[in-house]
Amino acid sequence: MAKGATTIGIDLGTTNSAVAAIVSGMPTVLLDAQKRSTMPSVVSFPESGVTLVGHEARAKLVDAPHDTVYSVKRLIGRSFTEPAVRAARASLPYEIVQDENGQVAVHTRSGHVYSVVEVSAMILHAIASRARRQFGPAPLQAVITVPANFNDAQREYTRVAGKVAGLDVLRIVNEPTAAALAFGFDGKKDGIVAVYDFGGGTFDISLVEIKGGVYRVLSTAGDAFLGGDDVDVALAGQIADRFRREQRIDLRRSQAEWQRLLFATERAKCELADVEHTMVTIEEAGFGESGAVDLRMKVTRNDLAGVAYAFVERSIELTHKCLQAAGVKLADVNDVVLCGGTTRVPLVASAVAEFFGRAPRRDVDPMHAVALGASLHAALLTGQWVNRPKTAPATSLLVDVLPHSIGIAVAGGGVEWLLKSNSVVPTEEKRRFTTWRDGQDDMRFVLLQGDSPHAAENTRLGEFVVPDLRSAKAGQIEIEVSFEVDVNGILCVTALDLDSKRETSRRLKISGPSAGDVAKSEKRLAATPRDDGEGEP
Amino acid sequence: MTPPLVVCVVSASSVTRALFASLLGSKGTDVHPFDAIPHALAGMVGVVPDVVVLEALLARANPETIQRLREAWTAPVGIILADRAYADERRGAEESRSLGANAFVAIPPDAGALAEAVRVAQGDSTRSAISGSPPSLTPDVESSPPVDAEQMARYVERLWSRLYTLDAYQTLRVSAEATSDEIRNAFRERALEFHPDRFHPNLDAAARERIYQIFKRVSWAFRKVGDPKARREYESGRRKPG
Q: How far is it, in rounded angstroms, from Cα B207 to Cα B202?
């Protein structure tokens, strides 16, 4: 390990997070004091006393559902007005409010208000403390993973959360790309790998070509609202329906009862990875006219397959789209790699095997692949991969792509595309714009990200203004705007007045909070005593 | 008094031709620039060069070119391949020799390196350098990037200074007739050289920034010609006047 800093890879998941580092030459998942490899991405804010993060917070989902925040990854980098946020507000037990920047914050019944970035930072800090425990208090340099389909704002806010958590964020990397690195690092096989990443909250499919140590992403597709949590909700819904028919008690009426059911259902779903059927058992699951009623219900693999079917079908649709975008035929795919907890659902693995006509590789735990790959990437970036296995190639390089097209809104509700999806990043595109009326004193651009030809159907990333133009006739002032997507997949813009050769802005980020807000969050985090159950000094 | 050295510079780029002419001409050398090989061969009637500087892209497009050049004259001629900067000049020299040339020089050349190449080519002109192995253009992952930080810094500096004058093919260092596979391989080679994630421990922040600028341009080039449909659009865009 180099002097001063420790490099780690963090898989910041919707439901669970994990951290890995290179230990004696091999990427290794770091465990907590109880030898657990993952940590629930949950934070609980009691009315008084310390904030809980991780396993202990997850236990509070049942007793204190209104004070316990989970699935914040579904909200990060989103504006309050997005339909996705409206949908989340309807289904999440904690309250979602808007902060001063139009971003999403959580408001617990216990009276705490934290931005989504702050909650994410608490999770990142807690999981990173495993590295502190193992390697000492050295500064941490981290690669943090995000779903490949994350847009500009989601990436930038995740990066900021890492910074607020006190990490030196080396890079934001796509989860499936990281997983490909974890599977391919032994350098044994060149070819095209399909990484099917079905996590708790999101689904991604990426096609990665591995050749001579270069991991080039050919295409990626995904859905930010397709995950194992949705399977839980659907299965719990089915159980609740049966229970209502049999007992005339609706478990959905009470948040506490519903959360207990979700909890038990999720556990049953995990058990069904190994057994044909299991029991969902909840004592005093609900209260009817004659008092408390227990819930005892048999759930089979077929029940699970029945509810998972629609989700799996959607994922296969996206997989097909991804192959088409890359111009890759099924027969060209040499390996299929599964990652994310939802791939443990039996139907998922068999559907993927059926689609590709080959059994997926299982040599890396799907729950750990992303964190392991991220730790490898961190070590590669800093030149710190010492004692690497002899079979590993001398070089490993990830070349990733843009998940959604980036463009500017034009008159009439259309979009002028600057960078199409699946373009290699980092990259830049320069365009020239001239003034269109006499005496025009600024130029405004609305930047969009998405794949719809209609401006309104894409995500609005923000506005970019070239101010203080000198007074001139229409068409006389020409500005060259360089749209740059950096190594993290984050957009920044540089504008050059071609006439005066003056840069009116330089690498201006379109998404993200102000420096002042970041500093404020850092202070708030330091002032919130937390127990992450990780035994941090 | 010895007669002046006669050098023919064969390149499709007028800038390259002018640059070599000015570097060589200042030494009292008789320089004849030609803009492409067919013209060069025709135009060379009456000129017997001692040394031919040939742009490597032209040679690669047609590996027999060098042999044909040699056969164009009865007197021995030394051939220097000139190429847009190589990450590893040793590799450039090796590839030049495998193609049958006598020496290698990077574009744009340092005056010293060019003088040395001319000296080598002149002394070496009596024999063809063709080795047994066919010219190999497959990416050689292990040899890149160069271990020598100073060499890399020079390479980066050279490429960076003319980045926006190169078209998509030149940026990727392929010929305009390259197949899709050749373009993909070239992109992979360039990524290994210039992707900002490559760990360059000996380079300073300014050089890393330049590497980043170069890669952004490499990915731009790959976007323009990496996909057959995009490539057709790029080609038709180039044919339009202005």
A: 10
* ipTM score: 0.88
A182-to-A64, A484, A537 alpha-carbon distances in Å: 38, 29, 31
Distance CA(A227)–CA(A197), nearest Å, equals: 10
Of B188, B197, B217, the CB nearest to A381: B197
Is B219 part of the contact surface with chain A (CB cutoff 8 Å)?
A: yes
For residue B87, name the pLDDT band (cuts at 50, 70, 90): low
Instruction: Quote the pTM value.
Output: 0.81
Q: Nearest CA to A207 among A341, A315, A333?
A: A333
Contacts of A498 by beta carbon, 8 Å cutoff, 6+ apart: A432, A478, A479, A480
Residues A382, A396: Cα–Cα separation, whole Å? 13
For chains A and B, count residue pairs whose Cβ atoms are closer than 8 Å: 63
Active site positions of A, annotated: 11, 73, 175, 197
Q: Which of A208, A399, A401 to mutate to test the interface with B (most CBs of B within 10 A)?
A: A399
In A335-393, where does DSSP find H-type helix? 346-356, 369-382
- Would an 8 Å CB–CB cutoff place B169 in contact with chain A? no
- B103 to chain A, closest Cα gap in Å: 29
Q: Which residue has the tokens 């000015």?
A: B22
CA distance B178 to B171: 13
Q: What is the mean pLDDT of residues B83-89?
A: 64
B6 touches chain A (CB under 8 A): no
